[in-house]
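Protein 1 of 2
SEQ + STRUCT:
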Amino acid sequence: LMPLKFKIAGASFGTLILFVILIVVSLQSLTTMQETNTWVEETFRVISSGRKLERLVADLAAGKQGYEITKRKEFAIAYLKTRSELAAEIVALRRIVRDPEDDRARVIVELVKLSGSLHQWGKEIADAELDTGSGGRRPLAQAPAEDRSAKLITEMRQELRLFLDDESRMLTARQAEASRMVLRTWNIIVWGTLGVMVISILMAILL
């Protein structure tokens, strides 16, 4: 028969190897779970930014319509303020989605283009309305050559709606994946620990 000290040493060595394997597998699972949670958090941030952009576009349309109907200075000011906030929020969204290969980057590039085009619209009107040096509104020498703002705002709304729909589907998928990873990680840790204990006991008995 094998001496007791060799049995103990063999069982201890086998247990150590099994625990090392369990730790490695658990760490890999935890890392994957953390990556999945990071994706979920990023998607939440993207959706939040996208919804804010939707609200700003709605405010932009309201400011434009208000000015066209009333020709009042406050609507021109509101339009310019919202337009600046819109550009800043697009930049913030671009910082979240940093990977140029990401499919969402194409939508953001399109939003940047639309925002840039919107920046050109109404410049003559804004200059006239906000020129305080003349003591009030000064008449325009001529109307803007073409008002494409309504079309641009509509295009931006459509891009944002498609963008948010895609992000919502992605969020659902990533949340489901995160739940699976949590369950998988706990199964590995709990059942792995129990398995190591059982195998260690069997090794001690059989050696």
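Protein 2 of 2
SEQ + STRUCT:
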Amino acid sequence: KESSAASDVYKRQYLDSPGRTGIIEIDLQSGTESMLYDSWTMESNPFAEVSPNGEWVSVYSGKKGSTVVFPRAVGPDAAMVLPGVNGRFSPDSRWIVMEGSGFLAFELANPQAGPVQVMRRGYQPLFGRDDPATGEKTLIWREGGDDEQSPDILTATFSRSGLGEARPLVSGLQHAPLTLSTMDVAPDGRIVVVRFVERSSEVWLLESR
């Protein structure tokens, strides 16, 4: 995954092989490698994420049953251990949201304030683009329903006081099962999902409707 920071020339690679496992960082100019997180494997630590500004790394620890978040420049020795799974960073890299008891959102610069807990029936929470009218942060998540008209993907504004009023983005995905950790937001605001079909997969861009 390449950082979006213009001054950053690093590339992250996930290694999962019998001889060497971990998350390494490669300087594209010199070819120098450095290990960010040793002994990482897809089986034991299925969720790994680098913040948009390239400064934070989030890794789910299967042994701890929690998410480890640490500054890229310092490494895991300075890690915060957060009680959740599938951590996703906000576009400005100031927050991380994950699944826990409902949704848990942590402000990375102020972890001692504790999480913002949202008791919501849903999964795969992630930050969307900031609201263009108010500048407020937004959360997007999957919920699913029992009929064709039930909203499957919803959104709401987010702040330390919690969620605003939820509104549906996409409905009618009951016949397109999506696996965990396969949803994201494209730069133009459309929802990106992956649908697995037998031994292959399809990438979908979903319009709000």
